[in-house]
Specification:
27% of the residues lie in helices and 28% in strands. It has four helices and seven strands, in the order E-H-E-E-E-E-H-E-H-E-H. It has helices spanning 23-33, 80-88, 114-121, 134-145, and strands at residues 6-10, 40-43, 56-61, 64-71, 76-77, 96-107, 129-132.
Length: 147
């Protein structure tokens, strides 16, 4: 069995769903996923590498970590027909997606910034995906769940 991974996915303001630059709407986007039967998260140009089912994706928007979800299954490719249709409509073209486990989607009470996390873990974030060890993930959770 492949080892569980922990990573941050930075939602892009280039995506029409997040162009509003509003943390409240980003939080609502993730919260609404809990109500979907088979919620998914789509990726445009780049996608996470080798993330097995059960891995944890932390969501970031406006340089703040605001929630998490557990992957259900592995990364899949968006059908070329759908990619082409979105390209013709001049919308964001998604190339890959992952299913999320709806019962394991969580919004954090606190939204630690990437700067705070970088300082605490002595680790820099990459622009789109940043991977963490289990120990680093636990420290991020502690920051996100403190009241």
């Amino acid at each position: 069995m492949t080892e569980q991974k922990f990573f941050v996915f930075s939602l892009s303001e280039k995506d029409e769903a997040f162009s509003h630059k509003d943390m409240g709407k980003a939080v609502s986007w993730l919260r609404d996923k809990k109500e979907e039967k088979n919620p998914l998260c789509k990726f445009a140009e780049k996608s996470p590498r080798d993330v097995p089912s059960g891995s944890i994706i932390l969501f970031s928007f406006d340089a703040q970590i605001f929630g998490q979800a557990t992957l259900k299954g592995t990364k899949k490719e968006v059908p070329l027909k759908e990619q082409e249709a979105r390209r013709k409509a001049e919308k964001t073209v998604y190339k890959h997606f992952v299913f999320l486990e709806p019962t394991k989607i969580e919004i954090f009470p606190q939204h630690p910034t990437k700067k705070e996390i970088s300082e605490k873990l002595n680790k820099n974030f990459s622009p789109l995906f940043t991977y963490f060890t289990h120990e680093e993930y636990q420290k991020i959770l502690k920051m996100a769940k403190k009241r």
